[in-house]
Design goal:
mainly alpha
């Protein structure tokens, strides 16, 4: 049996971002999948992927900052990034493949960069705009393009998520150790708080929100693992939650609560009342164990005027300044990287949405919102279709899609309290989500080809992958192909 029978019709998911259904059999000769080319072999360009994998590890471990005495001024991430770009481009061109896969997310990131460049003449400080354009943003765009193209199998997605879990655990251990060894539990105010990992996470709010964003990745591995590994991953998630609390970060606390609540709500369908009671008990115990000053600090979320550090009041004033700039300059903003010139005390907006609108106008804000909500919409579709009662039951895909949604929820809270629109956190999360979407699309098309366009036979429950790694086992694939072959 020819598994990749060229006579099969083009079949694509019926909903989701950038997907269209081909209804006419005669159109299959002209139809091209929007994101997956069938002539492209998934899992190729191994050297390029390894470079991107190493770059991601270095970016999050930041050895040149954590151990400056060992690495000195050697910028390892930059060297690996340049190598990855050269190897990726050469590999793609030699294979006769497109260098860029123009998903809607890639287009919107490119639009942000283009807007920043076009608005340079209108900026009060063109140099600040160029610094953002050619320091973080162009790097983000290039790495993002490579991730979208190279993370095209479950195995690769699992490896990239594994980096995040490893680094998250290191961050959590470091934060907890810093707290208990530095005497921060006895500080009388919040002017002295723990710092994170390297220079990138020197702000406690940053490390708290990044941990909240990465915690759902650990939950993925906990839910798809069994035995000792499952409890080990849950323990790592617990350490991250504890580290977030020890930062005394309000935004981190909200992000943790929202991400955890979304995961529990999604996976507790049908038994939410049973789960609600133990969750309430855990939250109550946790709240009772908090230092009194932390409870007071959290209360300022609802009443900013009671914040004795004046932090909440300053943020509120800065956000009002951002609204004013966005409303008065909706078409031509103040220029990328220029908000601080108009801000109070030369500070940034502490809100990614307002700062984007103020710097790049309403078009820039729309592009930024699409970058966030387009992949989230796809994740919701995958969650519905791969649920137990969905069209294509696949527990692992459902788990990944739900947990990535929780990470997006945590990011939105982070973005509401921080100017992080030009940082890498969002774009890695979007890359993982687009990768899952493309993998799902490819597997649907491969299944359709294997079945010659016919509906695939329904497998019994034991034949479905329920727990384990992010890829189907050889035994399962064998049973699946046997079942498909028997149906023809």
């Amino acid at each position: 049996m020819n598994i990749l029978n060229t006579r099969s019709a083009t079949i694509a998911p019926s909903s989701g971002v950038l997907f269209k259904r081909t209804t006419s059999k005669d159109s299959r000769a002209h139809a091209k999948p929007l994101e997956i080319s069938r002539k492209d072999s998934r899992g190729g360009h191994r050297l390029a992927f390894r470079c991107v994998y190493l770059f991601t590890l270095l970016v999050y471990l930041r050895p040149h900052e954590v151990m400056p005495g060992v690495f000195g001024g050697l910028q390892l991430p930059k060297l690996v990034a340049i190598s990855a770009i050269l190897i990726y481009t050469a590999s793609k061109l030699s294979a006769g493949e497109s260098v860029i896969i123009w998903t809607v997310e890639v287009k919107m990131v490119a639009l942000l960069w283009t807007l920043g460049l076009l608005l340079v003449p209108f900026a009060a400080s063109p140099g600040d705009s160029f610094n953002v354009l050619f320091d973080p943003l162009i790097k983000i765009l290039l790495i993002f393009i490579m991730q979208i193209s190279l993370i095209d199998t479950r195995s690769r997605l699992r490896k990239m998520l594994g980096i995040m879990v490893f680094c998250e655990t290191l961050y959590a251990f470091s934060s907890i150790n810093t707290f208990f060894s530095g005497g921060y539990a006895e500080t009388s105010s919040f002017h002295t708080r723990i710092t994170g990992w390297g220079n990138q996470f020197g702000n406690p709010n940053d490390i708290a929100c990044v941990l909240a964003l990465m915690l759902p990745f650990t939950v993925i591995f906990a839910l798809i693992s069994r035995g000792f590994k499952r409890w080990l991953f849950f323990a790592c998630a617990g350490l991250s939650a504890l580290a977030i609390l020890l930062t005394f970060s309000r935004s981190g606390f909200i992000a943790l609560a929202l991400a955890s609540g979304l995961i529990i709500w999604k996976f507790a369908r049908g038994r939410r009342l049973k789960i609600a009671l133990p969750v309430i008990v855990v939250v109550a115990v946790l709240f009772a164990a908090m230092p009194g000053k932390y409870k007071t600090r959290l209360s300022t979320i609802f009443n900013p005027q009671t914040d004795t550090t004046n932090s909440a009041q300053e943020r509120q004033e800065q956000m009002l300044r951002g609204v004013t700039l966005a409303v008065t300059r909706p078409i031509v903003g103040v220029g990328m990287g220029n908000f601080h010139i108009y801000g109070i005390k030369e500070l940034r907006a502490h809100n990614a949405f307002l700062e984007t609108a103020a710097e790049l106008g309403m078009l820039g804000l729309i592009a930024f919102l699409i970058i966030i909500f387009a992949p989230w919409r796809s994740l919701r579709r995958i969650e519905r279709e791969t649920a137990a009662n969905g069209a294509r039951p696949d527990t692992e895909k459902q788990i990944v899609s739900v947990c990535l949604q929780a990470s997006f929820a945590a990011f939105i809270i982070y973005a509401f309290f921080g100017s992080i629109q030009y940082d890498s956190y969002l774009y890695y999360l979007v890359a993982f989500s687009v990768a899952l979407r493309r993998i799902d699309t490819a597997e649907v098309e491969e299944s359709a080809h294997a079945g010659d366009g016919a509906a695939l036979p329904e497998l019994k429950a034991p034949d479905r992958p329920t727990r384990g790694s992010l890829w189907r086992s050889r035994e399962f694939r064998g049973r699946r192909l046997k079942a498909i072959g028997g149906s023809r």
